[in-house]
Fold these 4 entries.
Entry 1:
Amino acid sequence: MPIDHDRLFKELIQTFFEEFIVLFFPTMHEHIDFRHVSFLSEELFTDVTAGEKYRVDLLVETKLKGEDSLIIVHIENQSYVQPSFPERMFIYFSRLFEKYRKHIVPIAVFSYDPIRDERSTFMIHFPFGKVLDFHFFTVELRKQNWRNYIRQDNPIAAALLSKMGYTESERVELKKQFLRMLVRMELDEAKQRLLFGFFETYVKLSDEEERRLRSEVNEMETKEKEQVMELIISYEQKALEKGREEGIEQGIKQGMKHLVQTMAKKGMSVEDIANITDLAEDEVRELLEKE
């Protein structure tokens, strides 16, 4: 299954919005009043020229300290190289401003593997003068050294270790430090699972690496060792249960598909099949269309 990078990043940053801002934009964090935070509905924009539709990743309505007027923080995750991305950020900015008429803080998170020098501006100028000089804030994850973040008890830092700059030989140490951060932060189970799932999406150790990890965990001090091992085992059990449930669900779907197609081959109408199986007629048609 392809990874839905935008959904993963949106869920992570929406859950830990303030932690994201304080980690990467501490000066901005000093000015935002986090007592007033609400997440706006998704915005879908059509690029008529390119014939494509784009969905804005995350919009957050908030206030600056000491001010009554609202502002909007727009955070966009970019998981692939796109030369026209600065222009797209400007289009988002202009359409959001047109709709909301509020001051907008545009932020781009570059999360793909190649290390590049990304532009954070979109300009329109002529020999006789400048018309537009648009700037947006950026986070270039692969340029961040993961070791600089392991002492911070920040859940965003823990999850994004998986997208920062590390070598193949550091993968075991990377996950070990990630687990130590989770233990220190003492988050509730739902947030732990969110961070664990995000991390493992991008850093999946081989069996040999997992053996090395457990060996190194066993060398930790007793209390920390027990906490980290408990975390590993708990997540593995949850993953196993989820896989089993998904397997059962998939098996049921496959069985229903076979049943519906068999009925159709025997000449039964869509309406009759729907009545017998308690499926909607549209669901029956969908199963019949699948080969």
Entry 2:
Amino acid sequence: MDNRNLTLLCDFYELTMANGYFFSDRKDGIAYFDVFFRDIPDGGGFAIAAGLGQIIDYIKNLKFTAEDIEYLRGLNMFGEEFLEYLKDFRFTGDIYAVPEGTPIFPREPVMTIKAPVIEAQFIETYVLTTFNHQSLIATKANRITRAAEGRVVSEFGARRAHGADAAIHGARAAYIGGVAGTSCVISAKEYSLPVSGTMAHSWVQMFDDEYTAFKTYCELYPDNATLLVDTYNVLKSGVPNAIKAFKECGITKCGVRIDSGDIAYLSKEVRKMLDDAGMHGCKIVVTNSLDEKIIKDILRQGAKVDVFGVGERLITAKSHPVFGGVYKLAAIEENGKIIPKIKISENPDKITNPHFKKVYRLFRKSDGVAIADYITLHDEEFDTNSPIELFDPVFTWKRQTVTDYVAVELMKPIFINGEFVYEAPTLSEMRDYCKAQVDSLWDEVRRFENPHRYYVDLSQKLWDLKQELLSNGGKLKNN
């Protein structure tokens, strides 16, 4: 969809480091970077991965134009040989990633990049800005749709999004997270999403009276008439005029939208008025700065709502607007041998897990419930027919032996040697996959308040390696 050249959507340090690698003995080295995040938005029990589709498009089209190179030359920071190298630059490495819609947890790799160091370092900014934004919106959308308890949720936030890209890609991410559709027409067109919308208050104000505005709309859209009933007075004029217009136009497939006031109270009163008029099939749509907390509250108060239109608090993830994914070096290759790397910090949360790794999700055989995630070294094998002992990587005395399980490797190959090898699902398939995977989590993990912590454990070999690196300042003993 995006025909812009986004190659220079990078941080300047990615170019200065690339230039430095080019003119040092690191130029031809292979690096392994992990993408992961540290904190779940809104204190939730899990997040939802999204954005891989745009990362794939970016990698496929990654190249420096003559104009890009001339701009960089004018900065007087880069060697001429490096600028010549950029003329034929493309991604030639490997990328592994979890499918979009996967529930993900802190400090586990959701993407691993293995590539020549210049290439692996260079793509950091685009990968993070895309993964962070769309995962944030998909996570918020999933919270909101779960709060709606099976009622329809539509994304209505384009006018409040942080720019065009945030609106377009935010609608995509929200759909993966569970919403039924969007009001953003370009997103609906490009991503084949269901599109929906009603009318603005200005439509009602444009006519001499409310009834004429409603009747005109019903005549224009007899198969999709949803009338905004709160321009003047919901109960005294809006709903009575809507009922009159529906009946005079012979419309039974219809809806009314409430965009202000006490939604819990008004929706109950509106439902009674519609039912008393024999319009039992007329849907009630509500909008106005909704989020999962408000939705849960008004439903607990008995609100009669069929459809939620959620805008600004979804498209901006207003309650937690930063996802916090990071891109960290996990290993390098020297003479064909993988050398693990670790970041050590006084802040324990910032200590990384070293080496090239695999991530498995363990599901209980009997009912398909997700038990824990298990991170191993890339070449480590374990017999899934044998019991496995899991232990907390920090509080190591917390241990559990699991016997009845199936292990599913989470990260799939996306690019191998620069070639695209992934069979990408449709957005509808991603959405269905997301719902099924979320349903596999314990109820306690899905809880909105104070959720149970889902366990992400390290294999014994990986844990031992990490302790060795921590004890020796980031180096292996035999080095």
Entry 3:
Amino acid sequence: MNRKINYISRIKDEFDFVLCGVNGVLLRGGTVVGSCIDTLIKMYQSGKKIALVSNTGMRVRDLYYFLKQRDIPMNIFYAMITAGEIAHFYLKNHKNLGKTYYNLSGCPSHAVDGLPYRMAESMVMADFVVAETSAEGVDMAEIFPVLEQALHLNLPMLCIGNNTSVVHEDGVRASVGAVAEKYALLGGKIIPFGKPDVRIASYLTENISGLQKKRCLVIGDCMSTDMRMGNAFGAQTLFLTNGVHLLVGDVAQQLTELADNYGLNIDYYAEELVW
């Protein structure tokens, strides 16, 4: 459909439940998008159920306090899920990966917090590799030799968050999804967590009585994660054009071509989320 909307209130009667991304929607380059928060508050006041779906490597509790500290009213959200939380659950219940991991970020992983895993300083001491989505992005040129070493050691990679790019204060940067794609092309094993896994949408809506999937609206700025999950779930989609794809000029034509390239249907698009 690719229908442009300036005010989401114009279509408020077409949906009851909202699945909303975080980076590129609530936050842009680490800065809170005020118009988005105001819009979500009005959605909540109008009776909509809103869930946050983030590909961050943070666990839910960490993201909750991260947003709360930025004066975002967390009571408006019905539920939250993060790629980090999903990976934590996986690691808690799968003991066959080993006990030692190497994090590409060089920092302890949120996903292993509270679990009996140890971070290795050297990859040769690791049983698996962790790549987590963060707001900082990654330098692909620097990461390539690391991937070659991981491949040589035959280490599986946990891709916690599948974003191929993120919006940074300096512009759009590559993210761990791009790292995972490169590792897979080299022949490495990838274990992905987060959007566009349609089971996330199913999990967040399973307790909604009488839910109609076409009465759900997925809001995000990324074709390969947000919009793909929305299409797979059978929800309506609202694509924000000033996120990771940075559409400018003839936005309608660019969006049509972009959606076709990804094989997706986009119901609505907007530059900003405004009520």
Entry 4:
Amino acid sequence: MYRLVALDVDGTLLDPAHNLSLRTQAAIHSAQRSGVTIALATGKLLASVQPLLADLRLSGTHITCNGAALMAAATGAPVATWSLSDAHVELALAAIHDLAPDMAIAWYTTDAIYTDSPWGLLDETLAAYHEPALRHVARLDHTLPPPLKFLMTGDHARLLSLRDALRERIGSAVTVVRTTSDFVEVMAPGVSKGVALRDLAARLAIPREAIVAIGDGENDIALLDAAGLGIAMGNAMPALLPHAQQTTQSNAEDGVAHALERLGLA
């Protein structure tokens, strides 16, 4: 019997326009009535998914910032965080500035996103993903709260090249991952949605075989690996497919609802 379902948000739970369909909403409500715990596993801040949590009537603890934080929905407070150390911050910023000096950097904390770049593409792209307005500062440095991750956006081909270059340069010291095709992110070593899911499951005393994880991106590989059953969306990146035991329809076709219904959870 499955007791915990971990759901990626963009590209999985939400449709291509970043909206929640009525069918998916109904399926999640049904699963909860059956006693299943639903946990979101997102790259976003908790504040960005609070309206979604309200629509889905979700409480409990959720995975945010691609696994760098477990956050309590009811209080908005962190349950656990895995921040970049000062040394990792210095290493990552130096590499990004060297490899992509013109690219804006988003500095994520538990409750805000900072950048030292003027208003531009970074602001526009994150707004489309329903993130809060960026806080523009003079410098990204130790005077800010410790970062959970750094995020960059831009041309998709350039981001792919940046990911590979960062992995070659600093990938042995930090985690470098491409999330959606719009983002490349840097986190502390070992941080992933999968590590956070295992931590959450331990807190809930739920064994791996009772966990389902559904996702679509490269950053969902560890999430699916941490679950007893991993399900890839029909729109999933090819790299995710070898890590899934099942596939479902795309996020344009209510893939999450299909998966929950097929498992008898909705």
